[in-house]
Every structure is written in structure tokens, then in C-alpha cells.
Amino acid sequence: MTTVSNQTHAISINPFNGEQIGHYAYESAEQLDAALARSAKGYAGWRRTSVAQRAQLMIALAKALRDNAGQMAEMISLEMGKPITQARGEVEKCAQLSEWYAEQGPAMLAPEPTLVKNGSACIEYRPLGAILAVMPWNFPIWQVLRGAVPTLLAGNTYVLKHAPNVMGSAYLLLDAFKRAGFPQGVFEVINVTPDGVSKAIADPRIAAVTLTGSVRAGTAIGSQAGAALKKCVLELGGSDPFIVLNDADLDAAVQAAVIGRYQNTGQVCAAAKRLIIEQGVVEAFTRKFVEATRKLVVGDPLSAETYIGPMARFDLRDELDQQVQATLAEGATLLLGGKKAEGTGNFYEPTVLADVTEQMTSFRQELFGPVASIITARDARHAVELANDSEFGLTSTIYTANVDLAQQITGELETGGVFINGYSASDPRVAFGGVKKSGFGRELSHFGVREFCNAQTVWLDRH
Fold first, then answer.
1. Is the pTM here over 0.85, yes or no?
2. Active-site residue flag, 235
3. Hey, what domains does the chain have and what are their CATH numbers?
4. pLDDT, position 2
5. Which of 235, 278, 443, 451 is catalytic?
6. pLDDT tens-place string over residues 56-75
7. Which of 79, 99, 232, 269 is catalytic?
8. Could you tell me which residue ranges the Aldehyde dehydrogenase domain spans (predicted)?
9. 269 is catalytic
10. Mean pLDDT of the chain
């Protein structure tokens, strides 16, 4: 009889009821070697296909995703608790991503002529090889494909090491690539321990590494990639500021703040975690925000009415609760929630903390769950100071009727993205990534296509 444990298997636990729904044996060194060999062999052929051919396969991938959207969305909901409506939206967003890059991506890889005095020169975008991707559980399909699609379009191959609790989603994604007609080895899935990840990074068949995850994981992976002299892209944590100034449309700001904080049960790197409200409207904003939060439907993630499901992992709920209790002990005011929900499900009550200041836990740390922190700013300048007083720098949001002022503020904010009168999102049309401890490198837009390219100079007849 096979013994199943976290040391031997990747285990999927349904966070709604605590039941095990899948276990996947970690691969041996020989199996890892075989996967890397397939990826290397796949790269030899894939890099020589035309960009137009790759684009056609992206269209086929979009169809494969839509054809199996129901099963994929249900797997996402079962494995990590995402409400089914949001899970379906995630799959559809991935299909649209694939179509967008099929249409727009080839131009991003076209040679760029450069003016020179003698001869002719251009910059060609060549692939690097097999890219190892260590991905998280919070968007089991989107996090993977927003990196994989542009990376593959550029002619690289992609080796996915997914989070242990969403391996069912990983294998459904692998099946989608097969049904779309991608050649063997172009998209591989490996199920390995951290030691296996280290071996893969050191393996010469891996050309570069990308990771979306925690600062701790990014530090470990980044140091290993550096030791191997391999490029890496890191998309790490965030404690994103959501600034509301006195002249803002409060109803619009509240609606955006609720979505920006509580979508995906608050488990989003770029969520609106620190609500920084100018003092003239903080009382009205807080009242409206609490009222709106009370109306959110908490429940079974497979129910179409549910907006907040269970948190993905029981240990992360414990960590979140410790952060909330620490913040309250430090002097914050509890306006809503503030505790684990009773019952078997891994629920945390939608929580609103007010009177949060710079020294408190929920200001200084990332809270990865359905908890909002409300911070009062004296004025716009103070709001910017509070926003920048963080080790993170992923995205930020500003709500104000004065767009000229907002444009000025954007230059002062130390974040990879700034959203004016709209909550943050990752979108293929714009670059996504952070600064400071939120990581480095960019995904999406043309940056995502070229991030793992060799920008090769070709100069003819230089005298």
C-alpha cells in the first residue's frame, strides 16, 4: 500500500470541507531528467517554427481552454476555493490572452532596423531555450499562461513546476496544450520537491527561471538562478496602496476598493491591501466600505452566488489570523469580522480594520486574505508618503476628480503600476511587475514577449 504524505506527494485538499481530492507522487530524478530532455528536444524544433505558426497554435489553445472551461473552473474551485464564477472568468481571460498574443505578438518579435552610418543593422529577438516556471496556487491557470503564452510565442519552451495543492489544474492545463496541437516538449509539467527545483535550475538545459510567489521563495530561487548565471524574473508580494482623496467619487471608489480587496478571497498579490483615505472623507468612505463588505456572499465556492470562498490553505488562514490579532493588539479598531469562521471550511470572515498606522502589522506586512486596512492621510502628499512607506512596490491606485494631480502623483509612487480611478489588474496590453521587494522583470505587453529573448544585434557591411 502506497503511503501518501507531504514528503512523498503533492496533495490537493478541498478547502471548503477539508477532504483530500487528489495526490500526485513526486517525480524521481530520472523522471525529472526525462522531462528536461523532452523540453530540450522540443526547443530544437520549436525555435525553428515561424512566429505565424506559433500564433496559430495560440488560437487553438484558446479554443481548447474554452472547450474544457467547465472542468477547469471546477478544478480551480475544488483545489483552492476560488468562487466558481471567478474561476470561469479566469479561464476565459486566459483564452482571450492567447488570442490577443496570436494577433499582436508577431509584431513584437519583428526585427528592429537601426540607423547606422555604414552598412545596415537591426536587432533580432531570438529565444533563449527552456524556461523553468515556479508558479503559485492563487490563479492556477492565469498565473501560468500570462507568462507561458508570450514566452512560447518567442520560441522558448516552458517547464511548469506548479504549487503542490493545484497539481490537478496543472495537468488539465497540460492536456489543453496537447489538445491544441503543441509539439511534445514545448509545454512540460514537472511535479518535484524543492530539491528537484534546485536541480532543474542548475541543469544546463534550463536557460532561465521565472517565479511568482512569496519574498522568501523569490529570495531562494533568485539566489540559485544567480549562482547558475541564469536570468530570472520574480513577481513577488505586494501591500498595494489604494489612495482616495477628498474630491473622489466615493461610491465609485468604494465599489472598486471592495472588488480590489476581496476578489479571489483577498488572495491577490496586487490587491488593494492598504486603503489610504484622505481625512476629509475617511469617515464617509469607511461607513460605505463596511456596508458594502457586509453584503458580500460568503459560502460554497461552487455556488454561483458566492463572492468570497474559503482560503486556499489552512496554514495560511492561521497566519492571517495571527496578523489580524497582532494589529488589533497594536491599537487598530475592528469594524467587521476579525476571526476564523466556525465550521469545517477554511473560511476567514471578511474583515475591516480601521485606525491602522505605520507601525502596525497590517501596514508593514502583506495580508494575503480577506482583510482590509484603513489608514488616514492628512492630505495628498501624506498619502503618497504612506503609500511609499513599504518594502513592496507592485501596484497602486488613486481615486480623485483631479486627473492632473493624479498624473503628478504617479511620478512619486514607487510601484510598477499606477491605476487612476480604477482598481489594479494584470492585462496583456500593459506591462505587469514590481519594484523593491515585489520583484523585478516584467510580464505581459511586449515586455513579456521579449523578457526571455536574446536581443541579437545583426550588422551587415560594417567598415
1. yes
2. yes
3. 9-236+438-459 (3.40.605.10), 240-429 (3.40.309.10)
4. 74
5. 235
6. 999 999 999 999 999 999 99
7. 269
8. 8-458
9. yes
10. 98
